[in-house]
Amino acid sequence: MKREILYTLTIILLVAAAATAFVYNRNHEKPIPPLKQRQGPISTSSEWLNTKAAIEGLQYKIRRDKGDTQSKLLLALAYMQEARVTGEHPYYYPAALDLIDEVLDRKNAAPEVRYEATIAKGMIQLSLHKFKEALETGKQAQALNAKRASVYGVLCDANLELGNYNEAIKMADKMVSIRPDLMSYARISYLREIHGDLDGAIKAMELAARAGYPGLEQTSWAMYTLGGLYEKKGDLKLAALTYQQILRERPSYAFAKGGLGRLQAKQGNTREAIKLYSEAANTIPEFSFQQELARLYHKTGEHKKAKTITKELLAGFEEDQEAGHDMNLELAHAYMDLEQNYDEALTFAMKEYKKRPANIDVNKTLAAIYYHKGNYKKANSYLKKATITNSQDPGLLCLNGLVSYKLGHKAAGEKLVQHSFSLNPFMDDAIANEAKSLLRKSYSKL
Q1: Where are the domains of the chain?
Q2: What does the pLDDT read at residue 31?
Q3: In which ranges do the TPR repeats occur (predicted)?
């Protein structure tokens, strides 16, 4: 009898424990990340109304069925797109990643949903600058389905950022062979650019821009990148026409307005440049707009304004870091270019170098820092890695020329500097200004 009572009590306790666990889990499930209200010009478009309606519909489906992996995936993708449109990266990328992880944790997720979720996770990791993690995630997606173009986009980007350039080329070729579209052409374009083929890069990006639907954010991004390539070619008129076309098709696209601001700065119209960059910064919280504004205010002697913007910029980087976004390289540039704090810049640049020692941009940054610190031999050691792809980036060529000059190779150094200004006569940073001074002294001796 006592044993039966004991069994009964045990069963009752187990049922009670299960019920408690059910209620606890139900009450402690992660809430659906809410949609943030857009602000400023991007809040008045019909696209925003459609986006809100679609996201609210997905949120409703998830509230009704917590196991709806398809809706969670679609909501994560929508939040990834909102991050691009609004610049609210610290909020949307972690929110999207939480949703993706919930999908991948479900053993009953359909194979196609699991594949797309894995791709989305890799893309988020790339956006957060978690490049090694993105490479592993890309390989997991490839194991799920090696016939889709999207997986090779993740693998291309991850390898590229890690400095595995030959592997990145293979992945881009594979991607474009499966699906020649905006995203695959864009990757081909960038790889051509960093390997010194600017004309080929322009042709590929023109294909990318034509492959997109006018007015969509992705198409505007491709056109903006194309405008940047025209600038590097020295065709400021065609660049301006490209940015203006973007704004006709997508009036709230802040990067196009920033592009026009950059063109005004190059032509010496500093006040107009400040106006355009300010409008862009008031549209989305994009760090590059703040950096350019700080530089321009220093140029006009408004150092107090420059310091205020720099302080806000660094605070924004800290917020991004707390959200899981690795911002070491961006911090290095901010401390180097805006604060002239080369020791602090070096600290952040070395953190990034330890993660991806073969990346040409990381090595270029370290070379620039050591140049400012007067350690030309050290700068040269990083330049050897930064120039491995034969990039014709004028800033890189200019830095390389200055370092060569300082190391005693004066003729070769001057030639590189002259070549850099023939490619981009509008360079106006600290290194470019020192190079201009060097050339003036050289010409005065003739």
Answers
A1: 51-170
A2: 83
A3: 220-253
Half-sphere exposure of 315 (CA within 13 A, CB side): 7
Q: Which of 37, 94, 83, 74 is nearest to 321 (CA)?
A: 94
In our burial notation (b when 16+ CB lie closer than 10 A, e otherwise), range 330-347 reads bbbbbbbbbeeebebbbe
User: What tokens appear for 409 in the block?
Assistant: 């190779």
The one-letter code for the residue type at 125 is Q
* pLDDT < 50 regions, the chain: 1-28, 446
128 secondary structure, DSSP code: T
What pLDDT shows up at residue 443?
Answer: 67
Q: What is the pLDDT of residue 44?
A: 86
Q: Tell me which architecture the domain covering 51-170 has in CATH.
A: Alpha Horseshoe (1.25)
Q: What is the pLDDT of residue 440?
A: 86
Identify whether the C-beta of residue 421 lies closer than 8 Å to the C-beta of residue 427: yes
Segment holding 314, helix H or strand E: helix 303-322
Q: What is the CA radius of gyration of the chain?
A: 25
Give pTM, 2 decimals.
0.90
Widest CA span in the chain = 114
Q: Which of 310, 318, 358, 359 is nearest to 336 (CA)?
A: 310
Q: Where are the alpha helices (DSSP H) in 128-253?
A: 131-144, 149-162, 165-178, 182-194, 198-211, 217-233, 236-249
